[in-house]
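Researcher: Re-running this chain for the archive, since the previous output was lost when a drive failed. Same request as before.
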Amino acid sequence: MRTPSAIAYGPDELDLDLRWWAAANYLTVGQIYLRDNALLREPLRLEHTKPRLLGHWGTSPGLSMVYTLLNRVIRATDSDWLYITGPGHGGPALVAAAWLEGTYTEVYPHIGDDADGVLDLFRQFSTPGGVPSHVSVQTPGSIHEGGELGYALVHAAGAAFDHPDLTVACIVGDGEAETGPLAASWRLPTFLNPRRDGAVLPILHLNGYKIAGPTVLGRADDADVEAYLISQGWDPVVVSGDDPREVFPALLDALLDAHGRIRELQAAARGDGTDGGADGAGAPPSEAVRHSWPAIVLRTPKGWTGPAVVDGIQVEGTNRAHQVPLAGLADNPQHLAMLERWMRGYRPEELFDDHGRLVPELRGLAPEGDRRMSATPYANGGRLRTPLPRPELSAYEVVVDPAARGRELVENTITTGRLLRDLYAATTTPDGGGTFRLFSPDETASNRLQPVFEVTDRCFMGPLRDTDDHLGPDGRVMEVLSEHLCQGWLEGYLLSGRHGVFATYEAFAMVSASMAVQHVKWLQHAQELPWRASVSSLNILLTSTCWRNDHNGFSHQGPGLIDCLLPLAPGVVRVFLPPDANTALWISEHCLSGTDHVNLIVVDKQKHLQYLGLEEAARACSAGTSVWEWASTCGPDEDPDIVLACAGDVPTQEALAAVQLLREGVPDLKVRFVNVIDLMTLIPEDDHPNGFSDSHFEDVFTPERHVVFAFHGYPRAVHQLIHGRTNPGRFHVRGFSEQGTTTTPFDMVVLNRMSRFHLAKEVLRRARTRPPGWRELKDLCDRRLAEHETWIREHLEDLPDIATWTWTGPTDDAPTDDAPADPAPPARLPSDPVLADHGAVDGDGR
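Model: Regenerated structure tokens:
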């Protein structure tokens, strides 16, 4: 154990901190156990306790100790700190800290700062209509719940990026340290730049046990733990013990020393003797060196200060202290007596005055205002967020001549790449930081987003070589081959007030799917808390999609993230499938400018045919789902024989090719062509804010005609979305059906029976009439499919007329005087050259 500093504590300061800690521990135990007699002003009886004892005691004393000492550091250094709690089960400890600092009563006025407030605080914890047991979105000062372990350090990193004055204290539990994401998160020193970023101080809390057994690092000796952290780029120090009067001074010394070393690193990197901020404009470029940042390994007993032995069995310092050390109160009066002795041992009569308020000498230990970790704006990022610039989209438009639709090939994501480039340029600050970042697992160029490298590089603090491409310490494109890190960094970045996008291969977004689910849950509850300011939306760009990973094979082919997100909170989730570059551009800019949503944008990076000019794209995106009159074979006033719908870039091409076959083979068949960009429009309006009313839905899809639907993902997703619509059985969906391999692009749609020939045959089967030529067209489709099968095996590529197909149907869609209006009003088009309003897709702006 480190020798306590002779100057860390002044006279009586240790006693004050120990009393604050006792108050935090008392409030923690009370939340778990009590529903009455909150301050033990009378003997404890069974009816004072909760009928269901929920919560986790074991990690809480350690969390409260660190919090207590960080408050002293904040007051001594006048610095900004954010507290990330990896052991999220320690929820009552952080709720207690927020109440002790006064923040809890400020944001929840019904929880007073007196005896009644203490009782209300206890009664609400883990009870119906109350607050969860984790360090959840309802906890002031939190941006990390910690329910699903593994993400504490990655969220801390995201909060530190581009916040040069912030230090993030990240408590990593030894159970959490066993997870893959946390193991990868230790590589942070390779990406943390002291010139423009804040700092992360990991505190690896080794209390030795999970819920049922020991932890790996808890049983490792100090030398092994230190060696591991050193290998990852940290400079650790160990603090351990079970005597608070020894551990408190040692840990305070370690915290102050870490803060000093962090400031020295930052001042040296910034080159001007300042501690960050706009003065860094004249700082030299960063050195390409991975800095050794301080870290703390903290060993204290699990369930510290709780019952040592219960029923003759050791509890403190074991896994038995993980949750509720004293259970079965109704059946065991001895346990009730032990609970009373435990709580009275904290001396509540010396912590709270006659009115139940924290005594003045303890109230004075909290920092003031926003310096309180429970009140810091870094944990309520909407308070710091500034809107993104909204560039004029016409600067990125792919010009599409209405007379030549579907004939030019363009990479669908390249326009988005140019937009991201200019957002980087517009948001970069003088110190080299900014408010926008792109996160991608080594795939920025692969995903055709490489225009960003015209203004910034990939971030890398390690050694550089002459052969490196757009790589350097001052780069702000975050590439690391871990979906967990990319998405987690972005989540921390957004929740602390900035903007960004996570771009990855479609199939491998499933690696971090549960993170997206957890973020949706966070935003869903945040929207119910008026004190939580709106944060930028989490934007997930999926490219290298299932249909065009024909060169990689089955492992790379999977659209499952759509299905993961669709059932989640309708007030949060949006799923977009733009069919071409201009719709991808419009949707991307819209999502990047929005707040409080999780936006899934699925668009392929390869070259695709282009269909809509920017103005048309704006109208189509604003509508969400619309009829493409120019692709239909019947007029807007005619009753169609069939509806052919599509969602996604490859499905759109195949559906258009099917229409062309039908136009040529059965010219009398009346086909309405519908394109879906916003999947949520398919949901009934009572179930989603973007959902169409039944009348609007029937205006588009007709009340009773069959609908053949070419869909990007699994067909069941569409059936799920239209559940509740009149006669949903008339929808016949073709999509990805788990058929794939390394093959040709067209063979992928054939294998999954979504090719133009399969769609045309399904239309002929489902149409209201059998027009002349239908049998011949069906036979032609069968012959072409057989020809395809033979050709690709002999020539190893698609048939020439398939590979070079372009739209040759009618393209003049100029509206007539008697043409009906679009199903939804057109979007407002860009006008201001700097900040333009591009309309709205979401239900609150459509």
